Amino acid sequence: MAIITHAVVASAQVAAARGVFLDSVEASAAAAPPGGVRRRALGCQKLALNSSCEALGGLRRVVPCGSPEGPCRRRTPCIVAASPPNNNAGGSRSGEPLTRQDLVGYLASGCKPKEKWRIGTEHEKFGFQLDNLQPMTYAQIRQLLEGLADRFEWKKVMEGDNIIGLTFDGQSVSLEPGGQFELSGAPLETLHQTCAEVNSHLYQVKAVAEELGLGFAGIGFQPKWSVAETPIMPKGRYEIMRNYMPKVGSYGLDMMFRTCTVQVNLDFDSEADMVKKFRVGLALQPIATALFANSPFTEGKPNGFLSFRSHIWTDVDKDRSGDLPFVFEDGFGFEKYVDYALDVPMYFVYRNGRYVDCSGLSFKDFLEGKLSVLPGERPTLSDWENHLTTIFPEVRLKRYLEMRGADGGPWRRLCALPAFWTGLLYDDESLQGAFDIINDWTEKERAMLRNKVPKEGLNVPFRDGLLKHVAQDIFKLAKDGLTRRGLNEAGFLKDIEEIVQTGKTPAERLLDLYHEKWNRNVDTVFEELLY
């Protein structure tokens, strides 16, 4: 759910950009404490991200070194952004109220030439206490965030007296409702850079967390804790969501408190390019869900699904989630998405340092100054940007496209997910090939895949074969697309290549371990998927 403002980036230069496929380094493990897990030595090499001061526009800005707007630390760019949300952003014409066309223009402003396309990777992970496998408390999370800020020079993000996140050089660390720890990476030029960024982040987190007796696991749904056992983070927007969710679906609180995902955010150069990528992304999202399926346990037992995280989205809030059939209709574009988003009920407006509960109210009324809780007040572009973050389809449009269908997982798959979509969507030949495959799929077929894949994975029957066979064709397109980029990036697909060939998802492998080696004790999954 956390967001990176993708329209802005300094072009990070990292050692990995030389074409080296980085790997995490495992060291010997210490003996496990009772009921806990072995501690792995720091296995992720620290990689410095040395960013340039090139500004690419958008709500976030990169302030050039030496700018009178503010000092730059160690000659790196300073990111100027408001978090919590900016309360001062105005309309497109100074002093005038926003119009529907301004909202359309906001989305259209994401169009950029291919040489400025970037890759933004986000991932979430579950933190836990190493000695007893219980969730981290907020007090422990606060210590962790403060340790990262002190040791690695991250800037603290506060809400009242509570530290709720960190920012540094276009990256942000944020807390999901149940304390899930999220890295929203900077938009970067290559997969080598984005993977090195993840590597550096995991190194830093492990360095501080292990001193506090904490660990992190990469899995799509919390395998052990109930919602009641999960701590609640002190963030105003989450309190509003927590009160609203049970009114509109049966799985809303599970989504908030017990899920983790990995996603990639990608650019487009025109409205037509956006539409093609949106359609390919939505149609093929079930394949990504299957390839990265990694959530087969709930409260200590198998839950009957391979991606339970994906399944719960079918009954969270139908007003703001789903696979958006209208995207495939003639005439779809920025205007149609704005119309859709305007019909999605609001959650909140951020004013004067607090979140105002607007749950269930209409952004259309807000545009006209008729919002009952803020009579006479009209929205800013920042309000619109925040509203877009409260919409949760399988692919989400902002000023870039978010691919949102994959479960959280171990380090290698955090690199494989952006590789998969970059190979498909950033190469013209592969994008066209994928579009040709999905172009005659019916709405009924797309819905069938969306509903069956969380349970059956790549073995869903589809037309004259299995979804596995389609996945093999799509995987080849992704790999060929990366090869044509000429940046030695195809190696990042290695971790999912065997999954594609065998049709056996990560979740099925975990279930095999559960039944055959773990003596049906799910606790071992924390060690298996420990970063």
Any idea what the radius of gyration is? Answer: 22 Å
Report the structural category: alpha+beta
Number of strand segments: 19
Examine the secondary-structure arrangement and name the CATH architecture: 2-Layer Sandwich
Which band does the percent of strand residues land in? 5-15%
How would you sum up this structure in a few lines?
The chain has 531 residues and is α+β, with helices and mostly antiparallel strands.
Description:
- The protein is of the alpha+beta class and 531 residues long.
- It has one domain: Creatine Kinase, Chain A, domain 2 (2-Layer Sandwich).
- It is built from 17 helices and 19 strands.
- The strands form 6 sheets. Strands 3, 4, 5, 6, 7, 8, 9, 16 and 17 form a 9-stranded antiparallel β-sheet that branches. A two-stranded antiparallel ribbon has the order 1-2. Strands 10-11 form a two-stranded antiparallel sheet.
- Helix 1 (100-108) packs across helix 8 (334-343) and helix 6 (271-291) packs across helix 12.
- The longest helix is centred in the middle third of the chain and has 21 residues, at 271-291.
- The radius of gyration is 22 Å and the shape is globular.
- Its EC number is 6.3.2.2.
- GO terms for molecular function: ATP binding; glutamate-cysteine ligase activity.
- Pathway: Sulfur metabolism; glutathione biosynthesis; glutathione from L-cysteine and L-glutamate: step 1/2.
List strands and helices in order, with pairings:
Blueprint: E1 61-63, E2 78-80, H1 100-108, E3 119-129, H2 138-152, E4 155-159, E5 162-168, E6 171-175, E7 181-184, H3 191-209, E8 214-217, H4 236-244, H5 252-258, E9 261-266, H6 271-291, E10 297-298, E11 301-302, H7 308-312, E12 321-322, H8 334-343, E13 348-351, E14 354-357, H9 363-367, H10 381-388, E15 392-393, E16 395-397, E17 401-407, H11 411-425, H12 428-438, H13 443-456, E18 461-462, E19 465-466, H14 467-485, H15 494-502, H16 506-516, H17 524-528
Subunit structure: Homodimer or monomer when oxidized or reduced, respectively.
GO molecular function: ATP binding; glutamate-cysteine ligase activity
Enzyme class: ligase
